[in-house]
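Per reviewer request, we include the raw input and output of the structure prediction for the construct analysed in the revised manuscript.
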Amino acid sequence: TALLGMPACTAQGGPTPTQGSLCADHGFCAEPLPGYDHTRAPGGGAVHPGLGLVVPLHAPRFPHMCALLASLADVPIPAFLVFSNATDARAFLAHDRYTRHLSGTGGGAGGAAHGTRAWPLVFSARGSLTNIVSLKKWAAIDHLVRTTALAQLLAADAEAMWLTHPEGRPPGARVAEKLAARARERSIALGSIYPSTKPLRRARAEYAMLIVRRSCAAAGLPPLPGTPWFFDAPVYDAADWREFLARVDVPYAARVWEVFDWLAYACFKVHARGWAVVRARAAMRSKVEFATCAFQGAQAPGHTFLWAGNACNGSRLFQHSLDRVPTQAFRPAGYEARLRAVRAWG
């Protein structure tokens, strides 16, 4: 049967991992669930080159993932759901409440008009692993760079949502415009980390800088003067992915929790690829997840942002951290209704 907008294929899964890959060399693999071939689109053509989403997923986040997929129903961005094991992947696929927004699932009235393109990947690890979140993302990105024509991959969490433009601009045009601006600017926006005389704030700042140091160290590079985490969108470029991976101390990254995948890649972009740093003019006084469009614009004027902590009238492609927004005013229109509907489905 066809699930997640994808026709069934051979039961053999994905291609054999090649040398120089996370899977073959280190035993961290993200491979298609048998029966799903993400290298082919539903109409028979290859997956559209451009931007793809990589979303690590586990059971508590299934409703959020469904809401995210529903928001992508008419958007030409494929999503790759990275499950910790095949049991979780099949559990997600087995429940109509999680997949009825997708074409080809028998969702009936709740089905999307055109269908979201989404595919399940199953993560596996050889040996012990502490930093599972970062390695799940990296394993999926490595696999997709080798098996698709996608030029960029956004490593998002399930608690995100595509933001519809108020003037109804075509989604594909908005994505292309944002990616073209990012390519021209060649810059990464960093949130500032300032020490404080208050013990709790000082401890948080010191731990944030520890994360920056360890993440950059995983790529054999010096630290950045701030952190892009949640401030700038974690977009990976397929063109330089293998160069980045060759620098990474994978065993170190796998055992050290404070190695954040996107931070390590941002260090690589700045120190090895010559990207500029755009530093925020002021420190966030609340959690960085709530960096609004207004804050981003004031602190990093001229920088192109792909996402933010609020809906901001469609000037960003995505809103993130929807499980942690401080007030209802931060939630985009329709998100609460979608979550209620997902949880109500049997």
